[in-house]
Amino acid sequence: MGIYLSTPKTEKFSEDGENDHLRYGLSSMQGWRSTMEDAHAAHTDLDESTSFFGVYDGHGGKVVAKFCAKFLHQQVLKSEAYAAGDIGTSLQKAFLRMDDMMHGQRGWRELATLGDKINKFSGMIEGLIWSPRSSDGNEQADDWVFEEGPHSDFAGPTSGSTACVAVIRNNQLVVANAGDSRCVISRKGQAYNLSRDHKPDLEIEKERIVKAGGFIHAGRINGSLNLARAIGDMEFKQNKYLPAEKQIVTANPDINTVELCDEDEFMVLACDGIWDCMSSQQLVDFIHEQLHSETKPSAVCERVLDRCLAPSTARGEGCDNMTMILVQFKKHAQSSAPSEEQSSSNGQVESEPKQETSET
Protein backbone atom coordinates (compact mmCIF):
# COMPACT_ATOMS: atom_id res chain seq x y z
CA MET A 1 0.00 0.00 0.00
CA GLY A 2 2.97 2.33 0.54
CA ILE A 3 3.15 5.45 2.69
CA TYR A 4 0.33 7.24 0.85
CA LEU A 5 -3.39 6.57 0.56
CA SER A 6 -5.21 6.58 -2.78
CA THR A 7 -7.33 9.49 -1.51
CA PRO A 8 -6.53 11.77 1.44
CA LYS A 9 -8.32 11.60 4.79
CA THR A 10 -9.51 15.17 5.21
CA GLU A 11 -11.55 14.69 8.40
CA LYS A 12 -10.18 17.01 11.05
CA PHE A 13 -9.92 17.00 14.81
CA SER A 14 -10.42 20.58 15.97
CA GLU A 15 -10.97 22.35 19.27
CA ASP A 16 -11.01 25.82 20.80
CA GLY A 17 -10.43 27.16 24.27
CA GLU A 18 -9.52 30.31 26.18
CA ASN A 19 -8.75 31.89 29.51
CA ASP A 20 -8.31 35.50 30.66
CA HIS A 21 -5.02 35.93 28.79
CA LEU A 22 -5.39 34.04 25.51
CA ARG A 23 -7.60 32.06 23.19
CA TYR A 24 -6.51 29.14 21.08
CA GLY A 25 -7.72 26.89 18.30
CA LEU A 26 -6.15 23.78 16.85
CA SER A 27 -6.72 21.32 14.07
CA SER A 28 -5.15 18.06 12.93
CA MET A 29 -5.60 16.11 9.71
CA GLN A 30 -4.16 12.78 8.54
CA GLY A 31 -4.09 13.81 4.87
CA TRP A 32 -2.44 11.52 2.32
CA ARG A 33 -0.39 9.54 4.84
CA SER A 34 -1.43 5.94 5.50
CA THR A 35 -1.32 6.55 9.27
CA MET A 36 -1.67 9.52 11.60
CA GLU A 37 1.51 10.01 13.62
CA ASP A 38 0.99 13.55 14.99
CA ALA A 39 -0.21 14.33 18.51
CA HIS A 40 -0.67 17.52 20.46
CA ALA A 41 -1.48 18.95 23.88
CA ALA A 42 -3.27 22.17 24.82
CA HIS A 43 -3.75 23.19 28.46
CA THR A 44 -4.87 26.77 29.00
CA ASP A 45 -4.50 26.33 32.74
CA LEU A 46 -1.48 24.14 33.46
CA ASP A 47 -1.57 25.89 36.80
CA GLU A 48 -3.28 29.09 37.97
CA SER A 49 -0.93 31.35 35.98
CA THR A 50 0.48 29.16 33.19
CA SER A 51 -0.63 27.79 29.81
CA PHE A 52 1.00 24.94 27.88
CA PHE A 53 0.84 24.05 24.18
CA GLY A 54 2.74 21.36 22.31
CA VAL A 55 2.89 19.65 18.93
CA TYR A 56 4.53 16.28 18.48
CA ASP A 57 5.30 14.85 15.03
CA GLY A 58 5.97 11.12 15.16
CA HIS A 59 8.12 9.16 12.73
CA GLY A 60 8.40 5.40 12.39
CA GLY A 61 5.18 5.11 14.40
CA LYS A 62 2.81 7.20 16.47
CA VAL A 63 3.42 5.98 20.03
CA VAL A 64 6.26 8.34 20.99
CA ALA A 65 4.25 11.39 19.90
CA LYS A 66 1.28 10.12 21.93
CA PHE A 67 3.52 9.42 24.91
CA CYS A 68 4.85 12.99 24.84
CA ALA A 69 1.36 14.47 24.50
CA LYS A 70 0.26 12.51 27.56
CA PHE A 71 3.27 12.90 29.83
CA LEU A 72 5.58 15.78 28.90
CA HIS A 73 3.53 18.60 30.43
CA GLN A 74 3.13 16.52 33.60
CA GLN A 75 6.88 16.27 33.94
CA VAL A 76 7.20 20.04 33.52
CA LEU A 77 4.77 20.54 36.40
CA LYS A 78 6.55 18.05 38.66
CA SER A 79 10.01 19.55 38.18
CA GLU A 80 11.73 21.27 41.09
CA ALA A 81 12.93 23.89 38.61
CA TYR A 82 9.33 24.67 37.68
CA ALA A 83 8.40 25.12 41.33
CA ALA A 84 11.34 27.54 41.61
CA GLY A 85 10.08 29.55 38.62
CA ASP A 86 12.67 28.27 36.11
CA ILE A 87 10.42 27.22 33.24
CA GLY A 88 13.26 26.78 30.75
CA THR A 89 15.13 24.26 32.88
CA SER A 90 11.93 22.40 33.71
CA LEU A 91 11.20 22.05 29.98
CA GLN A 92 14.71 20.81 29.22
CA LYS A 93 14.50 18.20 31.97
CA ALA A 94 11.04 17.10 30.81
CA PHE A 95 12.25 16.54 27.23
CA LEU A 96 15.16 14.38 28.42
CA ARG A 97 12.92 12.62 30.94
CA MET A 98 10.70 11.31 28.13
CA ASP A 99 13.53 9.08 26.90
CA ASP A 100 14.20 7.80 30.42
CA MET A 101 10.55 7.02 31.02
CA MET A 102 10.19 4.95 27.85
CA HIS A 103 12.72 2.34 29.04
CA GLY A 104 11.94 -0.88 30.88
CA GLN A 105 8.71 -2.70 31.65
CA ARG A 106 6.79 0.44 32.64
CA GLY A 107 7.85 2.28 29.49
CA TRP A 108 6.99 -0.71 27.31
CA ARG A 109 3.58 -1.02 28.95
CA GLU A 110 2.73 2.66 28.52
CA LEU A 111 3.82 2.62 24.87
CA ALA A 112 1.85 -0.58 24.24
CA THR A 113 -1.24 1.04 25.76
CA LEU A 114 -0.91 3.91 23.28
CA GLY A 115 -0.10 1.67 20.31
CA ASP A 116 -1.84 -0.41 17.70
CA LYS A 117 -2.08 -3.64 19.69
CA ILE A 118 -4.21 -2.04 22.36
CA ASN A 119 -6.21 -0.11 19.77
CA LYS A 120 -7.42 -3.34 18.20
CA PHE A 121 -8.90 -4.45 21.51
CA SER A 122 -10.41 -1.11 22.44
CA GLY A 123 -12.05 -0.59 19.06
CA MET A 124 -10.09 2.55 18.22
CA ILE A 125 -9.73 3.03 14.50
CA GLU A 126 -6.49 3.63 12.63
CA GLY A 127 -6.13 7.27 11.70
CA LEU A 128 -7.85 8.58 14.84
CA ILE A 129 -6.50 12.03 15.63
CA TRP A 130 -5.24 11.69 19.18
CA SER A 131 -5.21 14.39 21.81
CA PRO A 132 -5.06 13.80 25.57
CA ARG A 133 -7.90 15.21 27.58
CA SER A 134 -6.64 17.48 30.33
CA SER A 135 -7.62 14.83 32.89
CA ASP A 136 -5.56 12.05 31.27
CA GLY A 137 -3.16 10.90 33.93
CA ASN A 138 -2.76 14.34 35.47
CA GLU A 139 -3.51 13.08 38.94
CA GLN A 140 -1.20 10.06 39.06
CA ALA A 141 1.88 10.23 41.25
CA ASP A 142 5.20 10.42 39.49
CA ASP A 143 6.59 7.28 41.07
CA TRP A 144 7.55 5.65 37.75
CA VAL A 145 9.27 2.93 39.71
CA PHE A 146 11.10 -0.03 38.20
CA GLU A 147 8.73 -2.84 37.26
CA GLU A 148 9.60 -6.53 36.93
CA GLY A 149 8.33 -8.17 33.78
CA PRO A 150 9.22 -9.75 30.46
CA HIS A 151 10.19 -6.33 29.07
CA SER A 152 12.18 -5.00 32.04
CA ASP A 153 15.25 -4.73 29.80
CA PHE A 154 13.36 -2.84 27.06
CA ALA A 155 15.82 -0.29 25.64
CA GLY A 156 13.14 2.11 24.44
CA PRO A 157 11.40 2.70 21.11
CA THR A 158 13.17 2.79 17.75
CA SER A 159 10.48 5.19 16.55
CA GLY A 160 10.58 8.82 17.61
CA SER A 161 8.92 12.21 17.63
CA THR A 162 9.70 15.90 17.37
CA ALA A 163 8.53 18.12 20.21
CA CYS A 164 7.83 21.85 19.99
CA VAL A 165 6.34 23.28 23.16
CA ALA A 166 5.33 26.77 24.31
CA VAL A 167 4.70 27.75 27.93
CA ILE A 168 3.09 31.11 28.67
CA ARG A 169 3.16 32.63 32.15
CA ASN A 170 1.97 36.22 32.45
CA ASN A 171 4.03 38.12 29.83
CA GLN A 172 6.73 35.48 29.54
CA LEU A 173 6.77 33.00 26.65
CA VAL A 174 9.20 30.07 26.84
CA VAL A 175 9.62 27.85 23.76
CA ALA A 176 11.38 24.48 23.80
CA ASN A 177 12.07 22.60 20.58
CA ALA A 178 13.70 19.37 19.46
CA GLY A 179 13.23 18.54 15.77
CA ASP A 180 11.67 20.35 12.83
CA SER A 181 8.26 21.31 14.15
CA ARG A 182 8.26 25.08 14.56
CA CYS A 183 6.98 27.94 16.71
CA VAL A 184 6.43 31.34 15.09
CA ILE A 185 5.12 34.58 16.59
CA SER A 186 3.45 37.44 14.73
CA ARG A 187 4.56 40.85 15.97
CA LYS A 188 2.89 43.72 14.10
CA GLY A 189 2.39 41.36 11.17
CA GLN A 190 6.04 40.31 11.03
CA ALA A 191 6.87 36.62 11.48
CA TYR A 192 9.64 35.73 13.92
CA ASN A 193 10.83 32.17 14.37
CA LEU A 194 11.03 31.23 18.03
CA SER A 195 12.55 27.82 17.25
CA ARG A 196 15.17 26.42 14.93
CA ASP A 197 14.64 23.39 12.68
CA HIS A 198 17.15 20.76 13.79
CA LYS A 199 18.38 19.31 10.51
CA PRO A 200 21.55 17.16 10.35
CA ASP A 201 23.39 19.57 8.05
CA LEU A 202 23.37 22.41 10.63
CA GLU A 203 26.96 22.88 11.79
CA ILE A 204 26.24 22.47 15.50
CA GLU A 205 24.25 19.30 14.81
CA LYS A 206 26.79 17.86 12.35
CA GLU A 207 29.62 18.33 14.85
CA ARG A 208 27.78 16.44 17.58
CA ILE A 209 26.68 13.65 15.22
CA VAL A 210 30.20 12.96 13.98
CA LYS A 211 31.77 13.19 17.46
CA ALA A 212 29.24 10.63 18.71
CA GLY A 213 30.18 8.19 15.94
CA GLY A 214 27.48 8.91 13.39
CA PHE A 215 27.62 10.14 9.81
CA ILE A 216 25.45 12.12 7.43
CA HIS A 217 24.51 10.79 4.00
CA ALA A 218 22.07 12.51 1.64
CA GLY A 219 21.03 14.87 4.47
CA ARG A 220 20.13 11.99 6.78
CA ILE A 221 21.82 10.65 9.90
CA ASN A 222 23.44 7.32 9.06
CA GLY A 223 21.49 7.58 5.80
CA SER A 224 18.23 7.12 7.73
CA LEU A 225 16.86 9.92 9.95
CA ASN A 226 16.41 13.46 8.59
CA LEU A 227 16.26 15.00 12.08
CA ALA A 228 19.16 15.78 14.38
CA ARG A 229 17.10 16.05 17.57
CA ALA A 230 14.08 14.02 18.63
CA ILE A 231 12.52 12.17 21.53
CA GLY A 232 12.80 8.38 21.14
CA ASP A 233 14.92 6.96 18.27
CA MET A 234 16.89 4.95 20.82
CA GLU A 235 19.07 3.26 18.21
CA PHE A 236 20.89 6.61 17.85
CA LYS A 237 21.40 7.01 21.61
CA GLN A 238 23.50 3.95 22.44
CA ASN A 239 26.89 5.47 23.29
CA LYS A 240 27.28 4.65 26.98
CA TYR A 241 30.26 7.00 27.32
CA LEU A 242 28.31 10.12 26.35
CA PRO A 243 25.55 12.07 28.16
CA ALA A 244 22.12 12.36 26.58
CA GLU A 245 22.78 15.80 25.11
CA LYS A 246 25.83 14.55 23.16
CA GLN A 247 24.35 11.42 21.54
CA ILE A 248 24.07 11.10 17.75
CA VAL A 249 20.42 12.14 18.11
CA THR A 250 19.46 14.06 21.25
CA ALA A 251 16.20 15.04 22.88
CA ASN A 252 17.95 18.07 24.41
CA PRO A 253 15.86 21.07 23.30
CA ASP A 254 16.78 24.60 22.35
CA ILE A 255 15.12 26.98 24.82
CA ASN A 256 14.06 30.50 23.80
CA THR A 257 12.53 32.97 26.25
CA VAL A 258 10.64 36.04 25.02
CA GLU A 259 8.81 38.85 26.81
CA LEU A 260 5.41 39.32 25.20
CA CYS A 261 4.27 42.85 24.43
CA ASP A 262 1.17 44.59 23.08
CA GLU A 263 2.48 44.28 19.52
CA ASP A 264 2.33 40.48 19.67
CA GLU A 265 -0.85 39.27 17.98
CA PHE A 266 -0.61 35.49 17.87
CA MET A 267 1.67 32.49 17.98
CA VAL A 268 1.63 29.35 15.85
CA LEU A 269 2.93 25.88 16.72
CA ALA A 270 2.89 23.49 13.77
CA CYS A 271 4.47 20.30 12.48
CA ASP A 272 6.56 20.29 9.33
CA GLY A 273 3.58 19.23 7.24
CA ILE A 274 2.66 22.92 7.35
CA TRP A 275 6.17 24.39 7.00
CA ASP A 276 6.90 22.22 3.96
CA CYS A 277 4.17 24.19 2.18
CA MET A 278 4.37 27.71 3.63
CA SER A 279 7.16 29.88 4.98
CA SER A 280 6.77 31.46 8.41
CA GLN A 281 5.83 34.82 6.88
CA GLN A 282 3.43 33.28 4.36
CA LEU A 283 1.58 31.53 7.17
CA VAL A 284 1.42 34.68 9.30
CA ASP A 285 0.08 36.65 6.32
CA PHE A 286 -2.49 33.95 5.55
CA ILE A 287 -3.70 33.90 9.17
CA HIS A 288 -4.07 37.68 9.24
CA GLU A 289 -6.12 37.50 6.07
CA GLN A 290 -8.38 34.77 7.49
CA LEU A 291 -8.92 36.62 10.77
CA HIS A 292 -10.70 39.39 8.85
CA SER A 293 -13.62 37.03 8.25
CA GLU A 294 -13.21 34.29 10.87
CA THR A 295 -13.19 34.71 14.65
CA LYS A 296 -12.91 31.03 15.60
CA PRO A 297 -9.19 30.11 15.80
CA SER A 298 -9.76 26.43 14.99
CA ALA A 299 -11.56 27.39 11.78
CA VAL A 300 -8.51 29.41 10.73
CA CYS A 301 -6.34 26.34 11.42
CA GLU A 302 -8.67 24.21 9.28
CA ARG A 303 -8.32 26.64 6.39
CA VAL A 304 -4.54 26.44 6.67
CA LEU A 305 -4.68 22.64 6.52
CA ASP A 306 -6.94 22.75 3.45
CA ARG A 307 -4.64 25.33 1.87
CA CYS A 308 -1.58 23.10 2.40
CA LEU A 309 -3.15 19.79 1.32
CA ALA A 310 -1.71 18.72 -2.05
CA PRO A 311 -4.08 17.77 -4.90
CA SER A 312 -1.99 14.62 -5.46
CA THR A 313 1.06 12.80 -4.10
CA ALA A 314 3.15 13.53 -7.20
CA ARG A 315 5.46 16.06 -5.52
CA GLY A 316 5.38 15.01 -1.85
CA GLU A 317 4.84 18.50 -0.42
CA GLY A 318 1.42 18.81 1.14
CA CYS A 319 1.14 15.05 1.64
CA ASP A 320 2.23 14.82 5.28
CA ASN A 321 0.14 14.67 8.45
CA MET A 322 -0.71 18.22 9.52
CA THR A 323 -1.19 19.68 12.98
CA MET A 324 -1.41 23.35 13.91
CA ILE A 325 -2.17 25.32 17.08
CA LEU A 326 -3.03 29.02 16.83
CA VAL A 327 -2.77 31.02 20.07
CA GLN A 328 -4.11 34.58 20.07
CA PHE A 329 -2.91 36.86 22.84
CA LYS A 330 -5.35 39.06 24.69
CA LYS A 331 -3.97 42.48 25.64
CA HIS A 332 -0.93 42.43 27.88
CA ALA A 333 -0.68 44.39 31.05
CA GLN A 334 2.87 45.67 30.83
CA SER A 335 5.66 46.68 28.46
CA SER A 336 4.91 47.28 24.80
CA ALA A 337 8.60 47.48 23.84
CA PRO A 338 9.95 44.61 21.75
CA SER A 339 12.30 42.36 23.67
CA GLU A 340 15.98 42.26 22.79
CA GLU A 341 15.65 38.82 21.24
CA GLN A 342 12.99 39.93 18.79
CA SER A 343 13.97 43.54 18.05
CA SER A 344 15.67 42.77 14.73
CA SER A 345 14.98 45.58 12.28
CA ASN A 346 16.09 43.84 9.10
CA GLY A 347 12.61 42.51 8.37
CA GLN A 348 13.83 39.01 7.58
CA VAL A 349 11.43 36.18 8.34
CA GLU A 350 14.25 33.85 9.28
CA SER A 351 15.95 36.21 11.74
CA GLU A 352 17.14 34.05 14.61
CA PRO A 353 15.92 34.86 18.12
CA LYS A 354 18.51 34.48 20.83
CA GLN A 355 18.65 30.90 22.05
CA GLU A 356 19.19 31.13 25.78
CA THR A 357 19.89 27.45 26.31
CA SER A 358 21.45 25.39 23.56
CA GLU A 359 23.67 22.40 23.09
CA THR A 360 27.34 23.30 22.92
From TrEMBL:
Region entry Disordered, spans: 330-360
Biased composition (Basic and acidic residues): 351-360
Name under which the protein is recorded: protein-serine/threonine phosphatase
Keywords of this entry: Hydrolase, Magnesium, Manganese, Metal-binding, Protein phosphatase
EC number of this enzyme: 3.1.3.16
Cofactor: Mn(2+); Mg(2+)
Originating organism: Lupinus angustifolius (Narrow-leaved blue lupine)
Biased composition (Low complexity): 334-345
Pfam families linked: PP2C
Protein family according to the UniProt entry: Belongs to the PP2C family.
PROSITE patterns: PPM_1 (PS01032), PPM_2 (PS51746)
Keyword Metal-binding among UniProt keywords: yes
Superkingdom, taxonomy of origin: Eukaryota
One of the record's GO molecular function terms: protein serine/threonine phosphatase activity
PPM-type phosphatase domain boundaries: 23-329
